[in-house]
């Protein structure tokens, strides 16, 4: 399956919050939908789920207009919510039945997912008596109860402890392996880097970056090198490079424990290496710089607006 | 359609499993059973109550009298006519006073002339009634003596004066008098069910919003299924509760029928045509108001705001009830006639007219048609409002804003 989101525009009152969102996702791949708070992630996902109507633009699945009710879609809303005063199993079966499962199958699936998520013991408890994390797990069981082909998760990791986050990561990996179409939004880059082949970065209602994560990183890493000197401190090396290699290196930056050098356009890393050896630097490590997603995120969406 | 049934089942079970629903039903039915059993209890534990009416007045009390007009008043006739117990004749005024004072006599009477007597009692009570029976006997004695002196048999006179007249009422239209009570009970039952279940449906919708279950629900199935399932679920729960109460009352009445001696038969003796119109108008009106309550519930995001949100419709509803009940006194009044066609009030007003007044079938059909169309429209509108209210959090939404948004195509 191939899901295309084309040029979505959405206004609330007179304020346009989405200005032409476009991205695409394919089965068996997970799309990481990135953005800062208020960037428009949830609004985009709600349009996808037909909770809001877009003012302009379209959503296509395999080239045809996407109607959410015609497909098995597992949706984890940003605002978690189920019936607090109902028993866990009762409401899971209810939601399962609403999404087309028979009663028996719904019960079976509910039990399977409760077990998978490690909350079987709360099967017959009222939801409100569970801790927040466990309620979140029940909500996840609800999301997956109908074995959806399309999985839309809005900030799925928020509120989960590391152990539970690991369980969810395994589930998402399994979904990807099973050729499901997975979209999940997050502002926690770590999770997205772990299993998203593709990302779309939304900023102020616009997609500012999208595509294959590896390619993006490579593009961002182009012209950037990291260097480690065995004898000198980073500051000393920075001084040397800035004073002696100005024609090759445009910019020297100390980020975390790395020294990141940016080549002038047209210059090759071999030239730099040659020069460095000539200058007597004790090269202990040298590589093309691969930026973390966080670096890209901060650079693209880091403006304070 | 499948999902409608799923929602319906879920919502009905929500009501049936609700403790307050169970407790309220049990208490009401319990009270009815006790109420209906009161005559039986009375007969069982306070037996011979049948005679008590005679006893209360006449009892075994003793009265005394002195006849100072011996020639004009026949003591024997007076004694025969006295129904209030035993009437002893005294010769001595002092003996009479003493007997009254020490409580041997309930009261004493001193006859002065055929039309005048003294009433001798120990204490004069506000509700003192010891003289009534004597006075009646005294008057009868005067009459008998009077007619006899004219040579007329008193029984002949009585036969003429109290000639028994037999009346058979043949009602060609509607018998308002007999219908009043059951019409009132049915109208009140409807009022009660709508006001209670309207609130419950509104609260149920608002709580789905406040606990955010709505977002999952509307992405799982169509809104129409949700709101129709919810409203019909509430309607069935309410109707079944009402049916349970009525059935309990009837069974308890039948079980105690000996003690009641058919005293309440007229309440349960409702003509089929009235029941039919009650069912048609009652069900539609019930659904109509539940849709309104449900839609209003969708406009708020906290259950605390529900009562504020539904206040306008509650006021209208109470007014409709008042108009209908007042209309029961005058079924041809202009107000009731108009109300019987307005969808907000027709379900109750037209039923009152059918049950107690005279109304043509055409009028009933027109009113029912208007109500049906409005109910369907309200259902559709409620599902739109429900859908629109899904992701509106914060302050309660104003109804004017709702209509603005409903008719602007861009909003969801």
Helical content of chain B (DSSP H or I, runs of 4+)? 55-70%
CATH topology of the largest domain in chain A: Rossmann fold
Rg value of chain A: 24 Å
**Helix segment tally of chain A:** 10
Describe this structure in words.
The complex is a heterodimer of chains A (305) and B (412). Chain A is α/β, with parallel strands linked by helices. Chain A has two domains: 2-212, 3-Layer(aba) Sandwich (Rossmann fold); 222-301, Alpha-Beta Plaits. Chain A has helices at 41-48, 88-98, 103-116, 132-144, 162-177, 189-195, 213-221, 234-244, 269-278, 293-301; strands at residues 2-12, 15-26, 30-35, 56-61, 64-65, 73-76, 150-154, 181-186, 198-203, 206-212, 224-229, 249-255, 258-263, 283-288. In chain A, the strands form three sheets. In chain A, strands 6-7-8-3-9-10 form a six-stranded mixed sheet, with helices on both faces. In chain A, helix 2 (88-98) crosses helix 3. The model of chain A has no long low-confidence stretch (mean pLDDT 87). With 412 residues, chain B is mainly alpha-helical. Chain B has two domains: 2-30 and 173-406, no CATH class; 62-153, D-Maltodextrin-Binding Protein, domain 2 (3-Layer(aba) Sandwich). Helices cover 69% and strands 6% of the residues of chain B. Chain B has 18 helices and four strands. In chain B, strands 2-1-3-4 form a four-stranded mixed sheet, sandwiched between helices. In chain B, helix 2 runs parallel beside helix 10 and helix 8 packs parallel to helix 13. The longest helix of chain B is centred in the middle third of the chain and has 35 residues, at 176-210. Chain B is elongated, with a radius of gyration of 33 Å. The model of chain B is unreliable at 49-57 (pLDDT under 50). At the A-B interface, helix 2 of A face helix 1 and helix 9 of B.
């Amino acid at each position: 399956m191939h899901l295309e989101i084309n040029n979505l525009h959405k206004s609330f009152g007179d304020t346009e919050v989405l200005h032409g969102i476009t991205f695409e996702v394919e089965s068996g791949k997970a799309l990481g939908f990135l953005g800062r708070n208020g960037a428009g992630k949830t609004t985009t996902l709600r349009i996808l789920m037909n909770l809001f109507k877009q003012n302009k633009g379209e959503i296509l699945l395999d080239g045809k207009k996407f109607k959410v009710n015609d497909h098995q879609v597992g949706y984890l809303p940003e605002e978690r919510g189920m019936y607090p005063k109902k028993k866990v199993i009762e409401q899971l079966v209810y939601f399962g039945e609403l999404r087309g499962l028979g009663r028996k199958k719904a019960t079976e699936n509910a039990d399977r997912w409760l077990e998978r998520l490690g909350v079987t013991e709360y099967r017959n408890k009222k939801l409100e008596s569970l801790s927040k994390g466990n309620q979140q797990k029940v909500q996840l069981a609800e999301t997956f109860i109908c074995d959806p082909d399309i999985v839309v998760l809005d900030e799925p990791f928020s509120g989960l402890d590391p152990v539970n986050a690991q369980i969810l990561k395994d589930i998402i990996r399994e979904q990807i392996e099973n050729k499901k179409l997975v979209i999940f939004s997050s502002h926690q880059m770590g999770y997205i880097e772990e299993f998203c082949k593709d990302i779309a970065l939304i900023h102020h209602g616009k997609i500012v970056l999208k595509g294959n994560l590896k390619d993006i990183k490579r593009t961002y890493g182009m012209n950037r090198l990291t260097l480690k000197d065995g004898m000198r401190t980073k500051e000393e090396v920075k001084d040397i490079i800035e004073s002696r290699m100005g024609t090759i290196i445009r910019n020297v930056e100390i980020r975390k424990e790395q020294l990141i050098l940016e080549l002038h356009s047209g210059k090759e890393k071999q030239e730099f290496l040659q020069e460095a050896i000539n200058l007597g630097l004790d090269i202990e490590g040298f590589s093309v710089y691969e930026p973390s997603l966080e670096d890209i995120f901060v650079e693209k969406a880091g403006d304070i607006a | 359609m499948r999902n409608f049934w799923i929602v319906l089942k879920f919502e009905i079970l929500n009501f049936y499993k609700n403790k307050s629903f169970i407790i309220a039903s049990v208490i009401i039915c319990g009270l009815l059973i006790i109420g209906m059993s009161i005559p039986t209890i009375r007969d069982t534990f306070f037996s011979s109550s049948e005679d008590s009416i005679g006893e209360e007045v006449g009892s075994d009390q003793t009265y005394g009298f002195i006849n100072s007009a011996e020639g004009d008043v026949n003591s024997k006739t007076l004694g025969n006519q006295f129904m209030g117990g035993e009437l002893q004749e005294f010769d001595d005024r002092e003996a009479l006073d003493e007997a009254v004072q020490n409580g041997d006599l309930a009261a004493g009477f001193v006859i002065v002339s055929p039309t005048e007597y003294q009433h001798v009692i120990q204490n004069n009570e506000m509700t003192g009634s010891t003289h009534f029976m004597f006075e009646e006997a005294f008057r009868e004695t005067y009459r008998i003596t009077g007619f006899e002196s004219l040579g007329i048999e008193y029984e002949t006179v009585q036969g003429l004066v109290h000639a028994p007249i037999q009346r058979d009422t043949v009602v060609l239209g509607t018998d308002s008098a007999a219908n009043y009570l059951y019409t009132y009970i049915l109208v009140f039952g409807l009022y009660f069910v709508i006001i209670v279940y309207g609130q419950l449906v509104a609260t149920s919708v608002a709580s789905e919003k406040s606990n955010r279950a709505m977002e999952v629900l509307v992405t799982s199935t169509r809104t129409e299924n949700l709101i129709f399932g919810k409203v019909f679920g509430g309607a069935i729960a309410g109707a079944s509760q009402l049916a349970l109460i009525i059935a309990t009352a009837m069974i308890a009445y039948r079980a105690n029928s000996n003690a009641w001696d058919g005293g309440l038969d007229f309440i349960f003796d409702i003509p089929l045509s009235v029941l039919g119109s009650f069912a048609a108008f009652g069900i539609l009106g019930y659904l109509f108001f539940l849709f309104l309550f449900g839609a209003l519930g969708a406009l708020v995001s906290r259950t605390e705001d529900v009562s504020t949100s539904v206040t306008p419709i509650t006021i209208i509803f109470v007014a409709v009830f008042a108009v209908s009940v007042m209309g029961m006194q005058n079924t041809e009044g202009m107000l009731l006639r108009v109300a019987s066609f307005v969808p907000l009030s027709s379900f109750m007003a037209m039923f009152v007219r059918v049950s107690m007044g005279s109304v043509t079938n055409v009028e009933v059909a027109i009113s029912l048609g208007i109500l049906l169309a409005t109910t369907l429209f309200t259902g559709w509108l409620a599902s739109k409002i429900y859908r629109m209210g899904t992701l509106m959090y914060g302050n309660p939404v104003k109804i004017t804003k709702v209509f603005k948004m409903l008719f602007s195509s861009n909003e969801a």
